[in-house]
């Protein structure tokens, strides 16, 4: 080991908290989603609509 280089044994171990199945589907939509599940993620509640209203002003033309 060279002077000033980190000791490889002192690095924290990476936690293995995802199963192989979880890793395989990470970042993907499930193959089938119900309407209710999709609405949960893509429907804006009244508060969100109010927050967006100024940016959604009618545009000419």
List the helices and strands and how they pair.
Layout: H1 20-25, H2 35-42, H3 46-52
Textual characterization of the structure:
Helices cover 34% and strands 0% of the residues. The chain is mostly helical and 61 residues long. The longest helix has 8 residues, at 35-42.
Query: Strand count, sense and closure of the main sheet?
Result: none
Mean pLDDT across residues? 76
Terminal Cα span: 70 Å
Estimated helix fraction: 25-40%
Number of helices: 3
Structural class: mainly alpha
Please tell me what the overall shape is.
flat
Q: Which features would summarize this protein structure in a list?
A:
about 60 residues, mainly alpha, 3 helices
What's the short story on this structure?
By secondary structure, this protein is mainly alpha-helical. It is 34% helix and 0% strand. The mean pLDDT is 76.
């Amino acid at each position: 080991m060279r002077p000033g280089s980190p000791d490889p044994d002192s690095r924290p171990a990476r936690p293995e908290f995802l199963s192989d199945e979880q890793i395989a589907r990470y970042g993907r939509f499930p193959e089938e989603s119900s309407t209710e599940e999709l609405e949960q993620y893509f429907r804006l509640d009244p508060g969100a609509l109010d927050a967006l209203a100024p940016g959604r002003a009618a545009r000419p033309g």
